[in-house]
Design goal:
Oligomer: heterodimer
Radius of gyration of chain B: 22 Å
Number of helices of chain A: 6
Number of domains of chain B: 2
Structural class of chain B: mainly alpha
Largest interface: A-B, 100 and 110 residues
Number of strands of chain A: 0
Structural class of chain A: mainly alpha
Order of helices and strands of chain B: HHHHHHHHH
Largest sheet of chain B: none
Number of domains of chain A: 2
Strand content of chain B: under 5%
Helix content of chain B: over 70%
């Protein structure tokens, strides 16, 4: 087993995968199926389908499975390390630099400017996810669940985790009969 | 001692580690629906629930994290852990976040395979999506307010709309928009001061009338 190949395959697909989850999937497919032949196309498709039944980042789910398939628990560790460490280390490194110069007007300016950008990003994400929700379960259900959650979160200050679990229960037990 | 970890002296003992693990496991288990879904969850844990960082700092880190490749969740988990307890904290945070599902991928494959088209799972994911929409929307609202307070309503609106246009209309990659903000940012305070000066000079000239 060539550990370096395993490491490199996942390193490359995650370093080039800008834009989070969905962006890295085709890159991982390229490495896993076409480059290194660790899985067939149809097996990769199955892994994706299975991964969707679980929470968490798609990249680590795929890395965990393929790494284990190909190299046991060592492969599991190698693939996950290649996936996670480079970008995490980069973030921490940049954040430390930012922290060191926190008092400088330059960094203060950056902090201020980033806020409307993050706000805009969140607006776009809200819109896109809202649209996906309507496509999946329709306007009525989406608005209904959203309204109840909004009320639970802001009026009753319920922990988001509990609201999500409640949604899981509703979805699994009730909604599943209508889709 | 790492500067970040030293900024807020964390209480000794296992306390913070336990909190960190709890928060990371929670976000790891509830993050259905891809990257963006965990962002409000992380924010809740880090800013609201435990007060490990301010909203401002969270926004900065989120921006930085989006400007870099790789899965957002693990980047945020690593930063949070590092912030609290240095490299050890970062390792614990990441492991707590991804190990449950990673091991499930390996160990429960048979069950998961049978479930992969299950209506129950589909129902669960579909029902959670509107909740995430609400969380993202609340976060959007709060950052809009922050931007207004920080930059002033007019500049905030101007920059916000520009960013929105870039992201939604021109389909510019978020990393690029963030990079643009980071590049202009250092100059902003100077530009804003110059503009203010210019406006005041114009105002006073109008009051005094043309100079003889």
């Amino acid at each position: 087993m060539n550990w370096w190949d395993l490491f490199w395959g996942f390193l490359v697909s995650n370093l080039l995968g800008y834009g989070g989850g969905p962006a890295s999937i085709p890159l991982m497919q390229e490495e896993i199926v076409h480059h290194y032949h660790w899985l067939t196309n149809s097996q990769f498709g199955d892994v994706l389908a299975v991964a969707n039944a679980l929470p968490g980042p798609i990249a680590t789910k795929i890395a965990a499975f393929v790494g284990y398939q190909v190299g046991g628990w060592t492969g599991f560790a190698v693939a996950l390390t290649a996936t996670i460490i480079p970008s995490a280390a980069a973030l921490i490194w940049f954040a430390r630099i930012l922290a060191r110069y926190r008092q400088s007007p330059a960094v203060k300016g950056m902090t201020l400017l980033v806020q409307p950008v993050i706000a805009a990003m969140m607006v776009v994400l809200t819109w896109e996810m809202g649209r996906d929700s309507v496509r999946a379960i329709g306007v009525g259900q989406s608005l209904g669940i959203a309204a109840v959650s909004l009320w639970a979160l802001t009026r009753w200050r319920i922990h988001p985790a509990l609201v999500i679990v409640a949604a899981f229960l509703y979805g699994g037990l009730v909604l599943s009969h209508w889709i | 001692m790492d500067k970040l970890a030293a900024e807020r002296p964390a209480p000794g003992g296992a306390g913070p580690y336990l909190d960190l693990v709890a928060a990371m496991v929670r976000t790891g288990l509830l993050g259905y629906g891809g990257g963006p879904s965990v962002i409000p969850l992380f924010r809740y844990e880090a800013v609201d629930r435990y007060g490990w960082m301010s909203d401002e700092e969270f926004g900065e880190i989120l921006a930085l994290a989006n400007a870099l490749p790789g899965p957002i969740a693990t980047k945020l988990a690593a930063y949070l852990g590092y912030r609290l307890k240095g490299t050890a904290g970062a390792t614990v945070a990441v492991l707590a976040h991804i190990l449950p599902t990673s091991i499930a991928m390996v160990g429960l494959l048979g069950i998961l395979y049978a479930l992969r088209h299950s209506k129950v799972v589909e129902g669960m994911i579909d029902a959670v999506r509107p909740v995430i929409v609400v969380l993202l929307g609340l976060m959007a609202f709060e950052f809009v307010q922050k931007a207004g307070k920080g930059l002033g309503s007019v500049p905030a609106l101007a920059f916000g709309l520009a960013a929105l246009a870039a992201l939604a209309v021109a389909d510019v990659h978020p990393a690029l928009v963030i990079l643009a903000a980071l590049v202009y940012g250092p100059f902003h305070l100077r530009v804003a001061a110059r503009l203010k000066e210019w406006r005041e000079r114009r105002g006073s000239r109008r009051r005094e009338g043309p100079k003889p």
